[in-house]
């Protein structure tokens, strides 16, 4: 999604929405809830997928559900505004030669499969980016499915990279929608 969503197009939320459904509809909701209310970032403030938003709000200092819903939707709109679809990314790359691409996955993932021309983010590369890259050139950041790259994109935006965007759906969506020659994979967590 490349356009900022309007209130009419946002998925409906209520106090009866389960946290599992909430995270499916709004992938950045846990980050938003943690940032504002310290909910869902650690074991002591976590929640179960079957709990409702109202239950979570009640046991966390009786946060008004309407306030939490508004915050989640505003955060979702902000997340959407810094994303670029795989198709729009491919079009941008065909039109401009100054597009830089950063991969925030693990070294093992990057070595197994990467978008052509992407550079793996390391501490050394970040220093190079900050000291010598054009802050007004397009900077596309991706991970496996598009979740972690949002945080990295916000980081680069916060450091003045005005054209930083997160690749919606990550390399997985890119391989489905743009370049099927890139193998898809699943990350197995032990």
From TrEMBL:
InterPro entries: GlpE_sulfurtransferase (IPR050229), Rhodanese-like_dom (IPR001763), Rhodanese-like_dom_sf (IPR036873), ScdA-like_N_sf (IPR038062). The keyword Transferase applies. GO terms for molecular function: transferase activity. It comes from the Bacteria. Keywords: Transferase. Gene3D superfamilies: Rhodanese-like domain, SP0561-like. Pfam families: Rhodanese. PROSITE patterns: RHODANESE_3. Residues 95-183 form the Rhodanese domain. This is Rhodanese-related sulfurtransferase.
């Amino acid at each position: 999604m490349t356009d900022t969503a309007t209130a009419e197009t946002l998925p409906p939320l209520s106090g009866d929405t389960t946290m599992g459904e909430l995270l499916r509809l709004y992938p950045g909701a846990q980050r938003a809830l943690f940032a504002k209310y310290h909910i869902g970032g650690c074991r002591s403030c976590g929640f179960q997928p079957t709990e409702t938003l109202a239950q979570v709000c009640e046991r966390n200092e009786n946060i008004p559900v309407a306030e939490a819903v508004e915050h989640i939707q505003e955060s979702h709109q902000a997340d959407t505004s810094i994303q670029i679809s795989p198709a729009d990314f491919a079009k941008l790359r065909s039109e401009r030669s100054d597009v830089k691409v950063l991969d925030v996955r693990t070294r093992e993932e990057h070595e197994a499969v990467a978008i052509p021309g992407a550079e793996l983010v390391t501490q050394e590369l970040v220093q190079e980016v900050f000291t010598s890259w054009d802050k007004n050139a397009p900077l596309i950041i991706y991970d496996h499915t598009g979740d972690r790259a949002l945080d990295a994109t916000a980081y680069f935006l916060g450091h003045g990279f005005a054209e930083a965007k997160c690749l919606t759906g990550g390399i997985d969506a890119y391989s489905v929608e743009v370049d099927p020659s890139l193998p898809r994979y699943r990350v197995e967590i032990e």
